[in-house]
Amino acid sequence: MVSVNQLAVEFGGFSLFNDVSFLVNPKDKLGLAGKNGAGKSTLLKILAGIQSPTRGVVSIPKDIKIGYLPQHMKHDDTGTVWEEVEKAFGELKVLETEIEDLNLQLAERTDYESESYLDLIHKLTEKNDRLSLLGGGNYASDIEITLKGLGFERTDFERLTSEFSGGWRMRIQLAKILLQKPDVFLLDEPTNHLDIESIQWFEDFLKGYGGAVVLVSHDRAFLDNITKRTIEIQMGKIYDYKASYTEYLKLREERREQQLAAYRNQQKLIEDTEKFIERFRYQATKAVQVQSRIKQLEKIERIEVDEFDNSSLRIKFPPAPHSGSITIDGKGVSKSYGSLDVLKDVDYTIERGEKVAFIGRNGEGKTTMARMIMSEIDFTGSLKLGHQVKIGYFAQNQADLLDENLTILETIDHVAVGDIRLKIRDLLGAFMFSGEAVEKKVSVLSGGERTRLAMVKLLLEPVNLLVLDEPTNHLDIRSKELLKQAVKDFEGTVVVVSHDREFLDGLVDKVYEFRNKQMKEHLGGIYEFLERKKLESLRELEAQSSNKNAKVEKVDDAKKTASKLSYEERKEISRKHKKAQQLVEKCEEEVAAIELLIEELDEQMQDVANASDPDFVKKYQEVNASLEAKMQEWEDLHEELGNMEELKQQLD
């Protein structure tokens, strides 16, 4: 579907990519891996057509629609949330207007047999077919489902987009892309501005989506739950793994071990050959053998070992000063912004040594509570810190408090004490400040770089209560793992506001859920909490469904008359039920056969000659289209079978 052939990208004398080739197949769920600066975002921009490569070709069929979400974007929208998202249906709305115009023309005509009248009918049929393909005119429910899934309330729909923060406006753009239903999603760090509930909804959406997904993310759980293929970018080359991110890490380590073994064998061969040449270089009787060995040495293609950073750097917070048994004690805590209540009469206690997570949808009060603990904002009620509690606080605004006149190295050197001073450069390297970069002034750093530097600084300050507000947003996976281990080893108390499940897993032993102006305590880890929430959501859904059925005074006719049906009528229902079962089974066999054919074609498509052959590509697209049609047929048959089974159960 998307073919990348011999791609090269160069900046000055630096080569980012060199002769990179791969194929994105329909329905691929593909994650891009590699350290920061490896070129993941650049590759997405090239696939999106925003940036041109130095050399090479990216081939995308004209009828393939690309949906690209960059990591950072400029917002120029001026309407309401609903109006902005509704733009996703631009083509559909044009079609609706054209169909309405054609219907008006037909209503005014009486020359039913004329060629022009038949042309109008033909155009109308084409427009209606296209409208059906795009999902018809019932898109309002799709907009509502998507916006609510991404965390918006109904009351937000008519608010101006300019009233929302950058993170929420990013969600609006994401909603537009999802509703456009592109053939290929290109997503660059899409979860940075989503809370856990929105991420889970987004995961379910992508897992069930029929198109392809190419994803860059530092959220390991998100990658594992979605991707089935991982392309690693390493030193200008790519390595393609048919595996999720965690499985790819294992396979990558195996590859490196194989490379090391081959490298050692080759080095031994080279060493022995060079010794032979050196020993017999000046002996005439060995001249032929020496020249032969020299040529052999020149022809050897040197094996390169991937430069993986496997350093065993382990960072630690300074020992936590002793404090009282109660770290935070809140009684009747409330916070309002004007007439809007964010938190109301909240009671909670956090004891010394506990590691807790603040979880909930954005806007429910997580960061507000963190700022109240820091005494940064006013509130009503009582919020007391325990005896000798000293807080280390990390939030986005911490980056703004750094001294802009200092260099990166000086910033850390001023707070480092003890043995850690010997590892300052290693510590900075772990958070993506290496080499000459440590001499850069804070004043020239980007927002993300400042945030990472503030995190490094926090790691060096002796405290007994850590309050971390979204600490992983600008960290790569390795940096997050280092920070997570440091927080796990920390002897004091920890409060983490985060949506990163992988970071929280195994780190916290208690979860406070923020919802409906309250804090609800859940004992256990993050995945135990999420599992319980999923069950609760299902119960709520069932309860809502029952209430809805009670309100609607409508009784199924089949239930009414089931006891009155004759033997022949019951027999006819059983016959139809059996027929529906057979049709579903037959359709499933046909789907399996088409999927098997697609797997064979996928392998053939790896051949560049096939990927550039129009006839082969056309066949490939036709087979995939037939699978979609057959899946739709299966869904229809399955729904009919479900109805028949329900009716049959009522009769039994």
Notes on the protein architecture:
The chain folds into five domains: 123 residues, Rossmann fold; 103 residues, Rossmann fold, CATH 3.40.50; 50 residues; 208 residues, P-loop containing nucleotide triphosphate hydrolases (Rossmann fold); 95 residues, Helix Hairpins, CATH 1.10.287. It is 47% helix and 18% strand. The chain contains 21 helices and 18 strands. It has a six-stranded mixed sheet with strand order 5-6-7-3-8-9, with helices on both faces.
Name the features.
globular, alpha/beta, Rossmann fold, 18 strands, 6-stranded mixed sheet, 18% strand, 652 residues
Please sum up the structure shown:
The chain is of the alpha/beta class and 652 residues long. It is built from 21 helices and 18 strands.
Mean pLDDT: 83
What is the correct CATH architecture of the largest domain?
Answer: 3-Layer(aba) Sandwich
Per DSSP, the total helix count is 21
The CATH homologous superfamily of the largest domain: P-loop containing nucleotide triphosphate hydrolases
CATH T-level topology of the largest domain? Rossmann fold
List the helices and strands and how they pair.
Blueprint lengths: L1 E10 L2 E11 L4 E5 L6 H8 L7 E5 L6 E4 L11 H6 L3 H19 L6 H19 L6 H10 L16 H15 L3 E5 L7 H12 L4 E5 L3 H7 L2 E6 L2 E5 L3 H36 L6 H13 L26 E12 L2 E12 L3 E6 L5 H8 L6 E6 L5 E4 L13 H6 L10 H7 L16 H12 L6 E5 L7 H13 L3 E5 L3 H4 L5 E6 L2 E6 L2 H26 L5 H5 L5 H39 L2 H4 L2 H38 L1
Parallel strand pairs: 3-7, 3-8, 5-6, 6-7, 12-16, 12-17, 14-15, 15-16
Antiparallel strand pairs: 1-2, 1-4, 8-9, 10-11, 10-13, 17-18
Helix pairs in contact: 3-4, 5-6, 9-10, 19-21
Protein name: Probable ATP-binding protein YbiT
Family: Belongs to the ABC transporter superfamily. ABCF family. YbiT subfamily.
Organism: Plebeiibacterium sediminum
